[in-house]
């Protein structure tokens, strides 16, 4: 299994229950990250992130800074790219959070969603949603559960494919 937070260049012990929040929360104490920091953390070229903003995959930065939800949305998209087409990734995220360029209609914050994804991938499990979370509309919790299962399955499939490719290279195929 990968030793990085999914969709990032950040090394992490994914078996730690709150690995994502422990590593990411301090990064946002100053109010957000600039594009060069997001690029370094995600391994993406700056123009890719800017293109995703232009295409409405995430809200634009405020005062040239990306907040924790925007950055986690970038990580989620980036981790799924090897396994899914962008249109399907965006459809999945829209299924739970509506218009991707507007956070006011989100049923779950992307920072929270990403933390739960990392827990599932790392095997530390735990409740899918925080105890104080309330469904913004009937069926929201079930939608989140379905999308989480798809995301984790797609990520694991891409990791297996990556490993199969490594093994093929080792034997010269």
Arithmetic mean of pLDDT: 92
Measured distance between first and last alpha carbons: 22 Å
**CATH architecture tag:** Orthogonal Bundle
The CATH class assignment is Mainly Alpha
Topology-level CATH name: Multidrug-efflux Transporter Regulator, Chain: A, Domain 2
Biggest sheet layout:
none
Low-pLDDT sequence parts: none
What is the strand tally?
0
Radius of gyration, Cα only, in angstroms?
Answer: 16 Å
Note the beta-strand portion: under 5%
Helix and strand composition category: mainly alpha
Helix-strand sequence = HHHHHHH
Q: What is the number of helical segments per DSSP (H or I, 4+ residues)? A: 7
**Domain tally:** 1
The helix content, as a percent range, equals 40-55%
Q: Write down the overall geometry.
A: globular
What is this structure, in a nutshell?
With 173 residues, this protein is mostly helical.
Can you characterise this structure?
- By secondary structure, the protein is mainly α.
- The protein has one domain (19-170): Multidrug-efflux Transporter Regulator, Chain: A, Domain 2.
- 53% of the residues lie in helices and 0% in strands.
- It has helices at residues 19-24, 35-42, 46-54, 68-80, 86-97, 110-122, 140-170.
Map the helices and strands:
Elements: H1 19-24, H2 35-42, H3 46-54, H4 68-80, H5 86-97, H6 110-122, H7 140-170
Helix pairs in contact: 4-6, 5-7, 6-7
List descriptors.
0% strand, 173 residues, Multidrug-efflux Transporter Regulator, Chain: A, Domain 2, mainly alpha
